[in-house]
Amino acid sequence: MRSVFMLDYLVNPEFRREIHRLLAQGESLHALQRALLAGRIEAKHGRTEDDANAISGALTLLTNVVLAWNTAAMQSEIIAQPARYPTEHLAHIAPVAHRHINMKGLMLFAIEPHHQLVRNSTGKVRKAAGPINSIT
């Protein structure tokens, strides 16, 4: 199989272009994940398999949220102006762009209805001391 792949890669320019396009999209996805993971993972985190799975799962979830958001935005633009985006061009576009996303901004969440569910360090649910307005 490897020999057939290498021969196809060397002889068939269309196959080679497709492989390069897919590799570029994969690298773009890794760039998005590096942008989402803004800081270092300290040595004390990620030592157990559960910690590593939680970190990996969180990064995958955030990546999928960005991909879904970009896909929805791209789809609405394509529906609004279909003649502007030929289908042969759309095959070469992946929803991995992230320069338009503010990765270090302030995020406000409406958590007032749930403030009584704040957990203490033992994991037990306790009543919050006061209203919580935002998480930064």
Explain what this protein looks like in three dimensions:
With 136 residues, the chain is mainly α. It has four helices and no strands. The protein has two domains: 2-103, no CATH class; 106-136, no CATH class. The protein has helices spanning 2-11, 13-36, 49-80, 87-90. Helix 1 packs across helix 2 (13-36) and helix 2 (13-36) crosses helix 3 (49-80). The radius of gyration is 22 Å and the shape is flat. Residues 130-136 have low confidence and may be disordered.
Topology:
Layout: H1 2-11, H2 13-36, H3 49-80, H4 87-90
Helix pairs in contact: 1-2, 2-3
In short:
With 136 residues, this protein is mostly helical.
Model regions low in confidence, pLDDT < 50 over at least 5 residues: 130-136
* Element-by-element helix/strand order: HHHH
Structural class comes to mainly alpha
Main pleated-sheet profile? none
**What is the CA–CA distance across the termini?**
52 Å
Radius of gyration: 22 Å
SS element count, helices: 4
Strands, count: 0
Percent helix range: 40-55%
Query: Rough shape?
Result: flat
Specify the oligomeric state: single chain
Total domain modules = 2
Beta-strand level of the residues, as a percent range? under 5%
Provide mean pLDDT, rounded.
Answer: 81
